[in-house]
Amino acid sequence: MPLADLVALKAALVASGARVRLLVRPRNVKPALDALAADGFTHFAFVAAGAATPEALDLRPLA
């Protein structure tokens, strides 16, 4: 997914009041998800090609 599309998606989410952090998906996602939870984030989503709007994301809770 082009960087400009990711930045536009992030901007749309931030405009709706969400806190957003973009990360490159690591091989082992558990430590990254644990770090996000420790930083106060409550949900995550993996962005697939073609997910041009916030509605296209599958938000999952960090538990």
Brief characterization of the structure:
By secondary structure, the chain is mainly α. The chain is 37% helix and 6% strand. The protein has one domain.
Can you characterise this structure?
With about 60 residues, the protein is mainly α. The chain has one domain. Helices cover about 35% and strands about 5% of the residues. The protein is built from two helices and two strands. It has a two-stranded antiparallel ribbon with strand order 1-2. The chain is globular, with a radius of gyration of 12 Å. The relative contact order is 0.21. The mean pLDDT is about 95.
Radius of gyration: 12 Å
Largest sheet, in brief, is: 2 strands, antiparallel
Distance linking N and C termini: 27 Å
Please state how the strands of the largest beta sheet are arranged side by side.
Answer: 1-2
